[in-house]
Design a protein that fits this description.
6-stranded mixed sheet, Rossmann fold, single chain, 4-stranded antiparallel sheet
């Protein structure tokens, strides 16, 4: 693994609002080694997805920058495979044709049969070898997300970006797809950056877990190195002597951030609302008595 394959340096992102500029992320610094799997975890609204969107080239940073494999990221490109929470599939195309769209774009000079083979083999790797011709409406939510994973990996990107990829799935399907993701990743060790809310998911898949502070002006709070050996088996990870200590550290960080948010919020102004219907009726009854 080489150092600093993906560099995210001094990222700041400011959005205009009716009350003035809002700095969502400030001085976000992070780098990933080639082949490393890193997760970002934090409370909703802290800017995790904003950072990922900047790395994907879908959003421009207000200041700072991103460098991937020695080249600055300024726009979207096939060197980054992106998996969203809800897969962006064309409903009138089959699973195979949805994956083939990306393969055709990235490998236009390859023979058509070769491009089709790449798409089909990647779908087989995610467990959809028997569903190549099914359209999204014929697939379950988990199967559609498998197509999304296949689409990203079939591009052979330098970096894989995952934005809560299993957040909309039930627990059992989520666990299954975590295993699918790690098996795909194990084959060629794509550099991967994933956003998640799930502490156990972050511990299971990651080499390091980045904990973000609360926004506004969110940044890297702590970085936790995960010691579990690869390839990973869920039972062995859960039995690891450090697992629950690491889990408590992550949860403790999130709880402390939540406490800090609550203490920093201004006290609500006393309510001047009119009494409710039943309070008014009780008052009238008391006066009559």
């Amino acid at each position: 693994m080489s150092s600093k394959y993906l560099e995210i340096f001094k990222i700041e992102k400011t959005f205009p609002t009716p009350t003035g500029p809002l700095v969502v992320v400030r001085d976000f610094d992070l780098w990933l080694r080639e082949g490393e799997f890193v997760s970002i975890i934090g409370h909703s609204g802290c800017g995790k997805s904003t950072v990922l969107s900047i790395v994907a080239g879908l959003t421009q940073a207000t200041s700072g920058g991103v460098v991937l494999a020695g080249r600055e990221v300024t726009e979207p490109g096939p060197d980054r495979g992106v998996v969203f929470q809800a897969p962006c599939l064309l409903h009138w195309l089959s699973a195979l044709d949805n994956v083939l769209l990306g393969v055709d774009e990235v490998h236009p000079r390859k023979p058509k049969a070769e491009r089709r083979r790449i798409a089909a083999e990647t779908l087989e790797l995610v467990g959809l070898g028997d569903s190549l011709d099914k359209k999204p409406a014929e697939l379950s939510a988990g199967m559609r997300q498998r197509v999304g994973l296949a689409h990203a990996f079939a591009l052979s990107p330098k970096c894989l970006l995952l934005d809560e990829p299993f957040g909309m799935l039930d627990s059992l399907t989520r666990i299954e797809l975590q295993d699918v993701l790690l098996e795909l990743w194990r084959q060629d060790k794509k550099t991967a950056l994933m956003v998640t809310h799930d502490v156990d998911e972050a511990l299971f898949v990651s080499d390091r877990v980045v904990m973000m502070t609360n926004g506004p002006e969110a940044k890297v709070g702590e970085i936790l190195t995960i010691p579990f050996e690869r390839p990973r088996e869920r039972a062995r990870v859960l039995e690891h002597p450090e697992y629950y200590a690491l889990r408590e550290r992550l949860i403790g960080f999130l709880e402390n951030e939540e406490k800090s948010r609550r203490t920093s919020e201004p006290e609500p102004a006393p309510s001047r609302a009119r009494p409710g219907f039943w309070a008014s009726m009780a008052s009238r009854a008391a006066r009559r008595a």
